[in-house]
Design goal:
The complex is a heterodimer. Chain A is an all-beta fold. Chain A contains no helices and eleven strands. The chains are: A mainly beta, B mainly beta.
């Protein structure tokens, strides 16, 4: 069973389109994240949700809107896609608080904007 | 602001060698530190998690150490194998912040 799964794995789309990436975790974790890996392979946090509430929003354009329908899901919607949005987007989850656990990552979604 | 650096950026060794990857961080108020490996075109696989109160963790041929006061962690790989070839990333979680700050990565190539 995949612990953190995200779909699609690959996404090729034209500039100006709107697209969504879905993420689900079956680990019972209370916190989920979106990270972006740029062309230089550097990973950086975008958003973090704890129990469906947004707790981290790093300087990300408001064209990116995360949505957490429940603790097990965190989706990422991107409006008006730009060439610079091309990257690999990773979803992750962990449990925080007294029983802080390691973070588990999905396989990534490679987004290419043409 | 936490900054994480990994040295070397790339490393090439023959099979069987023992090797050490280095990770340094600027803010010692960390909650934990995690080592990952990333294979080309793949996701991140967690290798070891060290809590701030721990000095080291071991898993098979891997041993990770943590020295909070000096802002350093090392990942020791014993008897390296070609299957160990990947990019190794360290990431720290600061106290009070629910996010990982990643290092720049070390690209390891183990040749047969």
């Amino acid at each position: 069973d995949t612990a953190v799964s995200q779909t699609p794995k690959y996404l090729v789309t034209q500039m100006g389109n709107d697209k969504s990436i879905k993420c689900e975790q079956n680990l019972g974790h209370d916190t989920m994240y979106w990270y972006k890996q740029d062309s230089k392979k550097f990973l950086k946090i975008m958003f973090s949700y704890n129990n469906k509430e947004l707790i981290i929003n790093e300087t990300v354009p408001n064209r990116f809107s995360p949505k957490s329908p429940d603790k097990a899901h965190l989706n990422l919607h991107i409006n008006s896609l730009e060439l610079g949005d091309s990257a690999v987007y990773f979803c992750a989850s962990s449990r925080v608080g007294a029983m802080n656990t390691e973070a588990f990552f999905g396989q990534g979604t490679r987004l290419t904007v043409v | 602001k936490q900054e994480v650096t990994q040295i070397p950026a790339a490393l090439s060794v023959p099979e069987g060698e023992n090797l050490v990857l280095n990770c340094s961080f600027t803010d010692s108020a960390i909650y934990n530190l995690q080592w990952f490996r990333q294979d080309p075109g793949k996701g991140l696989t967690s290798l070891l998690l060290i809590q701030s109160s721990q000095r080291e963790q071991t898993s098979g041929r891997l041993n990770a150490s943590l020295d909070k006061s000096s802002g350093r962690s090392t990942l020791y790989i014993a008897a390296s194998q070609p299957g160990d070839s990947a990019t190794y990333l360290c990431a720290v979680k600061n106290t009070g912040f629910q996010k990982l700050v990643f290092g720049t990565g070390t690209r390891l190539l183990v040749s047969p």
